[in-house]
Amino acid sequence: MGNTRTIIKNGSIIGAGNKEIAIIDGRIAEVADKIEPSAEDRVIDASGLKIAPAFVDVHVHLREPGFGYKERIETGTMAAARGGYTTVCPMPNLNPVPDSVENLKEQLKIIENDAVINVYPYASITVGQNGSVLSDMEG
User: Fold this and answer.
1) What is the pLDDT of residue 1?
2) Cβ density class 15-38: b for 16+ within 10 Å, e for less
3) 7 near 38, Cβ under 8 Å?
């Protein structure tokens, strides 16, 4: 893609009003009242549209490890990204339950390999999610 910019014009940024946005290589490079496009720039007219910051969902079910037939980290994070989410926090109802460093590492390996957005998993508060023995939270 090089240094070709994408410029979003005429949209209303939630919390900032009418601004224009320049994007280079998938990252916001500039936000200003007016950005002059060059002949090489791609311009998107966002007239009548709202532009929102990225969303975060603190309660998702990505279901890996253990229940990949229901949802996978790859597909769940792809869907989240498509909806404007850059970060999700999956619940710990998995197999194995992320109630130890060892079990959490299994989930983190899948996240590292397959996630397309930020994923910050929750560990289980109790061993096996059974509510009796606290998990090693310090670990």
Assistant:
1) 46
2) eeeebbbbbeeeeeeeeeeebeee
3) no
**DSSP per-residue codes, 47-103:** TT-EE-PPEEEEEE---TTT-TTT--HHHHHHHHHHTTEEEEEE-S--SS-S-SHHH
Name the one residue in this structure whose structure tokens are 């939270």. Answer: 137
Name which of 88, 117, 124 is nearest 103 in CA terms.
124
2 vs 22: which has the higher pLDDT: 22
Burial class (CB in 10 A: 0-12, 13-18, 19+), 93: middle
Q: What is the pTM of this model?
A: 0.74
User: In the beta sheet, which residues pair with residue 6?
Assistant: 23, 42
Residue 115 tokens read as 């996630």
Rounded CA separation 40/53 (Å)? 26
Q: Which amino acid is at 53?
A: P
Residues in the chain: 139
Contact 69, 95 (CB under 8 A): no
Confidence of residue 53 (pLDDT cuts 50, 70, 90): confident
